[in-house]
Amino acid sequence: MTISLTVNGSPVELADGTTVAALVEQRTSGHDRVAVARNGDVVPRSSWATTELAPGDRLEVLAPTAGG
Amino acid sequence: MQKDRELTEELAPALEQEEATDPFTLGGETFTSRLILGTGGLPSLDVLERVVRSSGTQLVTVALRRVEAAAGSAMLEVLSRCGVRLLPNTAGCQTAREAVLTAQLSREAFETDWVKLEVIGDDRTLLPDAVELMDAAEQLVADGFTVLAYTTDDPILGRRLADVGCAAVMPLGSPIGSGLGIRNPYNIALLREEVSVPVVLDAGIGTASDAALAMELGCDAVLLASAVTRAREPVQMALAMRQAVEGGRLAHGAGRIPRRWLAEASTSMQGLPEL
Q1: Are residues B72 and A40, on separate chains, in Cβ contact within 8 Å?
Q2: E strand or H helix at A10, and its extent?
Q3: Gap between the Cα atoms of B129 and B150, Å rounded
Q4: CB within 8 A of B140, min separation 6: which ones?
Q5: Which residues of B touch A33 (CB under 8 A)?
Q6: Are residues B176 and A61, on separate chains, in Cβ contact within 8 Å?
Q7: B64 and chain A: CB distance < 8 Å anywhere?
Q8: Any catalytic annotation for residue B116?
Q9: CB distance from B40 to chain A under 8 Å?
Q10: Are the C-beta atoms of residues A5 and A58 closer than 8 Å to each other?
Q11: Helix or strand run (H / E) with residue B200
């Protein structure tokens, strides 16, 4: 079973039961100090492993960059 | 570039000595450099490192972006090696809701409750949206953030931001990246008188004299990015900004002479021979 959701503005299909931690692991190789928003709220790092993604979720997976 | 490096090494000790006598406190932290540097727009991490070192800054702004577009951990390693503190911004946010969420995400990512709060009205001018800015500032202060608020040069709005608990008020000199300098020095000086928290001139600096003017007007520090990162020689401009901020600060403390309509001789007329 897969679920449909949006990650960083693009539609994706993920295995049912995928956690935020697994998504971060997949997406953030080479990045440190990542932050995740789910449906407009922060997902604290301490909850990544226990937060399962749901159909229709909007995820933003963010990392540091240069800025003024 | 080699010349830049030599310049930095030669001048650093003298500057450090001067700076040590005039520290600057922001959000409970003490800094000896009064130059805050934005990191956006540099061509490489090598140039970033040399710019940061040349500027003498101790506080640099950073941003959060989608991971596909982000810089990668090497940038943080460079900044860590330079020993600078990170100040996350909320660049690009147009509503209080976006800015508050971005600040909360930055707190999670960077493990700091400091934020450069930026809430802009549109993409064309990047001018602050005063209504959304006030709303976001109040929410973030209540949530325990140390808020450094990027704002217009309106002294009354600056006072309101200080009143709700912002740790610093950061008026623009002119629009972000415009290089137009300080368009209303009167407002900047008035704002400095209006608030007791630090005032940081943020945005619009084009060259060293703009940074010096900000300090002469009584600003506590200057925040700039484009003036250095888009200069033809960024490392050299970083050093120029460092010296301009130092010079402006010293001049402010020394007290400029009053402007006069007519000349006043500096050579005494007493004993002038009749020839």
Answers
A1: no
A2: strand A10-15
A3: 10
A4: B99, B100, B103, B115, B117, B147
A5: 73, 76, 109-111
A6: no
A7: yes
A8: yes
A9: yes
A10: yes
A11: strand B200-202
- Tell whether the model's pLDDT for residue B12 goes beyond 70: no
Q: Quote the CA–CA distance of B161 and B150 in Å, as a whole number.
A: 10
Task: State what percent of residues in chain A have pLDDT above 70.
Answer: 100
- pTM of the predicted protein model: 0.89
- The pLDDT tens digits of the residues spanning B113-132 come to 999 999 999 999 999 999 99
CA angle B48, B67, B38 (to 5 degrees): 30
Query: B259 vs B40, B232, B256, B264, CA distance in Å?
Result: 39, 35, 9, 11
Q: Is the pLDDT of residue B90 over 80?
A: yes
Q: How far, in Å, CA of B62 to CA of B225, rounded?
A: 11
Q: CB within 8 A of B189, min separation 6: which ones?
A: B217, B218
| Average pLDDT of every residue of chain B | 92
Complex-level ipTM:
0.95
CA distance to partner chain B, nearest, from residue A5 (Å): 16
Range A29-53 average pLDDT: 93
Contact A35 B64 (CB under 8 A): yes
HSE, side-chain direction, 13 A CA sphere, residue B112: 19
Check whether B2 has a pLDDT greater than 60: no
